[in-house]
Amino acid sequence: MKHYPAEFKADAVALYRSRPGATIRSVAGDLGVNTETLRNWIRAADGRCSGAHSSPPAAAKAGGDTVQAELAAALKRIRELEEERDILRKAARYFAGETRW
Q1: What is the tens place of the pLDDT at every residue in 7-54?
Q2: What CATH number does the domain containing 40 carry?
Q3: Is pLDDT larger for residue 63 or for residue 13?
Q4: Rounded to an integer, what distance in angstroms lies between the CA atom of residue 62 and that of residue 68?
Q5: pLDDT confidence of residue 55
Q6: CB 34: neighbour CB atoms within 10 A?
């Protein structure tokens, strides 16, 4: 049984959540982990932080100011892309270190 660092687990969960169309199977395959392992990490993370998917800001809900709503959506997407980039960098470093003897 392989043990993964807590940071890797958290990054894997964040990667799954940052890819709306992705399946657990596809993300697990990309990271080289078992599908059920990733599913368990996601369940554990859901139990720890139930407010992970909070509602959008009040300005975006109002609907009167579409520019604010578009700005909020763009900023959210930027944060997701930056997080995904960071996760992939960490995963690449992790797996590069695993292949060295």
Answers
A1: 999 999 999 999 888 899 999 998 999 999 999 999 999 886 544 444
A2: 1.10.10
A3: 13
A4: 10
A5: 47
A6: 12
Alpha-carbon distance of 2 to 4, in angstroms, equals 7
**Domain count across the chain:** 1
Q: With bands split at pLDDT 50, 70 and 90, how would you rate the model's confidence at 100?
A: low
Cα pseudo-dihedral 62, 65, 68, 74, rounded to 10: 90
Residue 68's CB is within 10 A of a number of other CB atoms, namely: 15
Residue 89 maps to a domain: yes
Sheet strands (E) in 1-101: none
**Which range marks the domain in which residue 68 is found?**
6-99
Q: Considering the domain boundaries, does residue 1 fall inside one? A: no
